Amino acid sequence: MSWLDYFRGRRQEQPASASAAKERLQIVLAHERIGRTREDFLPKLQQDLVAVVARYVAIDPGKVNVNLDRGGDMSTLAIEIELPAPSAVRMVAGAR
Amino acid sequence: MAQVVVVTSGKGGVGKTTSSAAFATGLAQRGKKTVVIDFDVGLRNLDLIMGVERRVVFDIVNVISGEARLNQALIRDKRVDTLSILPASQTRDKDALTRDGVAKIIEELSKDFDYILCDSPAGIEKGALLALYFADQAVVVTNPEVSSVRDSDRILGVLQSRSKRAEEKKDPVKEHLLVTRFDPVRVERGEMLKLEDIQEILSIPLLGVIPESESVLKASNTGTPVILDAESMAGQAYADAVSRFLGEEKPHRFIEAEKKGLFKRLFGGRAA
């Protein structure tokens, strides 16, 4: 750092990115260490849930949206399944 | 019986080969009969860092396939006479290495050497797995950066589950953390992971901290292991790490930001 830097806006406080690095590492490693000893069940859970829904409604596998957020204290698995229009459902029901 | 030490990291480009060269040279300087093996078959570089690239005739693959004897492939260092180098092959691929072949080489080297250093390739594929398989101790080279710390954690998991010691349920591989490319000034500014943070996350004993230093590039340019540059901070830091490895107590140096004088504050300055 030289004297010129004092004029280049160095004085404005930047958020310390190192603490973000530490936090992110702690979370990701906590999950990866579990995965080493135990199989990650979330992908399987997702498949099973979609299969259950498909038993009742004819769904388009391309219209299934899965979001997983691995957090420190809690992870969320959000599955969005687009259900077909009622007419399509009736057709399936009629076919049975 | 020789101690087998793997220098590993998972991630590439963090300083495994630089550290292997420095560490092997440092151990040899203390009178330990040391051999350093390049496991990066296909991408050999230890020969360049050690400055013996023009003396390579045979390599580890030639020995495994029976085309050369081990003695013919070993290169004696001209600076430190207790040091030898076993180069990797440049033309073959990693499949040329076999566990039995490596086992035989390590067994034979154990008769003549005190320390067998294994310079691991990056990744967790065959070459890296073979480099760590026979290890008694591991030096895990880590940069203060998220991807490097994550990969180090991963490689620690591999050491604990897939090494020979783990498979045979013997005492675990002794793990050492070597932090390289550390910049105390950036740590002070909050831009770089702190030493304590890395230790807390990986929770293995700290063997040494090598500061980011221009002398490392200079050393590789000339094929001189940086530990032979006793003036440089990196060289001194490696020498300290070797001392600690051999059981000496040494306080960590170069981990605090240098207090700059008025002159340096005004005109800047870089680490030697």
Automatic annotation (TrEMBL), chain A:
Pfam families per the UniProt record, alphabetical: MinE
Gene3D superfamilies to which the protein is assigned, alphabetical: Cell division topological specificity factor MinE
GO biological process: cell division
Keyword Cell division found: yes
Matches recorded under InterPro entries: MinE, MinE_sf
Region Disordered, annotated ranges: 1-21
Keywords associated with the record: Cell cycle, Cell division
Protein family per UniProt: Belongs to the MinE family.
Stated role: Prevents the cell division inhibition by proteins MinC and MinD at internal division sites while permitting inhibition at polar sites. This ensures cell division at the proper site by restricting the formation of a division septum at the midpoint of the long axis of the cell.
Protein name per UniProt: Cell division topological specificity factor
TrEMBL record, chain B:
InterPro entries documented for this protein: CobQ/CobB/MinD/ParA_Nub-bd_dom, MinD, MinD_FleN, P-loop_NTPase, ParA/MinD_ATPase
Task of the protein: ATPase required for the correct placement of the division site. Cell division inhibitors MinC and MinD act in concert to form an inhibitor capable of blocking formation of the polar Z ring septums. Rapidly oscillates between the poles of the cell to destabilize FtsZ filaments that have formed before they mature into polar Z rings.
UniProt keyword terms in alphabetical order: ATP-binding, Cell cycle, Cell division, Nucleotide-binding, Septation
Oligomer and partners: Interacts with MinC and FtsZ.
Protein family (similarity comment): Belongs to the ParA family. MinD subfamily.
Domain CobQ/CobB/MinD/ParA nucleotide binding positions: 5-226
Source species of the chain: Neoroseomonas terrae
A Pfam family matched in the record: CbiA
Stated name of the protein: Septum site-determining protein MinD
Entry-linked Gene3D superfamilies: P-loop containing nucleotide triphosphate hydrolases
